[in-house]
């Protein structure tokens, strides 16, 4: 009995430290285990990273870090329920966030073309970066799983698309000093924008 309690405590400690998380494979409808050994911690200097935006143009973090509070949110896939709620939440709160000197950037394993369609369909007023090999996510240590296929309907037309990888839902907040102010796995996707606003308020009050 004592050994069972010891194992339970050990597992709980790992869960609290965020060393293991579930990456959801939407095509197979099952969960795949992946170790989340984050390379970046709160207080660290934010790593440099490059990506391609929804217009196919190169986006470099060094052109943005230090100028505003940068919110980089990693999410699994365009046109899925939780990811749409999260994106639209940031869209609906963008004036408030911009007013606090915040720039929002979304990152997933979708292509630039899919990002362009997702951004247009939901009128998203912020950049989406295509991380189809998971390189940006891996820079931070955010878990990356297998890619997959999905589809969306627009004006009665169904479009299928393929994403290179499926990235776990994490949000990183980088302050104006270029330091990581927060890096967290996201619980309820739709509540992430409010949670980020609270973090930004705390940064501003320091």
Provide keyphrases for this structure.
206 residues; alpha+beta; Glutaredoxin; seven-stranded mixed β-sheet; globular; disordered N terminus
Explained architecture:
The longest helix has 16 residues, at 2-17. The chain is built from 6 helices and 11 strands. The radius of gyration is 17 Å and the shape is globular. It has 206 residues and is α+β, with helices and mostly antiparallel strands. A hairpin with a 4-residue loop joins strand 3 and strand 4 (58-60). The N and C termini lie far apart (48 Å). The chain has a 7-stranded mixed β-sheet. Residues 1-35 have low confidence and may be disordered. The protein has a single domain (37-205), classed as Glutaredoxin (3-Layer(aba) Sandwich), CATH 3.40.30.
CATH superfamily: Glutaredoxin
**What's the number of structural domains?**
1
Q: Count the E strands.
A: 11
Q: Roughly how many Å is the radius of gyration?
A: 17 Å
Order of helices and strands: HEEEEEHHEHEHEEEEH
CATH topology: Glutaredoxin
Roughly what percent helix?
25-40%
Head-to-tail CA distance between termini: 48 Å
Low-confidence stretches: 1-35
Anisotropy-based shape: globular
Mean pLDDT over all positions: 83
CATH class: Alpha Beta
Summarize the structure.
With 206 residues, this protein is α+β, with helices and mostly antiparallel strands. Helices cover 32% and strands 33% of the residues. A hairpin with a 4-residue loop joins strand 1 and strand 2.
């Amino acid at each position: 009995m004592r050994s069972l309690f010891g194992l339970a405590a050990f597992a709980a400690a790992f869960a609290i430290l965020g060393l293991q998380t579930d990456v959801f494979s939407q095509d197979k409808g099952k969960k795949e285990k992946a170790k989340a050994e984050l390379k970046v911690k709160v207080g660290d200097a934010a790593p440099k990273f490059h990506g391609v935006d929804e217009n196919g143009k190169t986006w470099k973090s060094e052109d943005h870090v230090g100028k505003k509070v940068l919110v980089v949110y990693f999410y699994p896939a365009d046109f899925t329920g939780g990811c749409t709620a999260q994106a639209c939440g940031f869209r609906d709160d963008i004036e408030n966030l911009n007013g606090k000197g915040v720039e929002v950037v979304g990152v997933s394993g979708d292509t630039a073309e899919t990002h362009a369609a997702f951004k247009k369909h939901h009128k998203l007023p912020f950049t989406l970066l295509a991380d189809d090999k998971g390189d940006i996510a891996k820079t931070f240590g955010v878990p990356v799983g297998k890619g997959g296929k999905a589809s969306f309907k627009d004006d009665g037309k169904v479009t299928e698309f393929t994403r290179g990888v499926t990235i776990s839902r994490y949000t990183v907040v980088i302050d104006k000093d270029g330091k990581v102010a927060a890096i967290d796995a996201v619980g309820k996707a739709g509540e992430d924008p409010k949670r980020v606003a609270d973090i930004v308020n705390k940064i501003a009050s320091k």
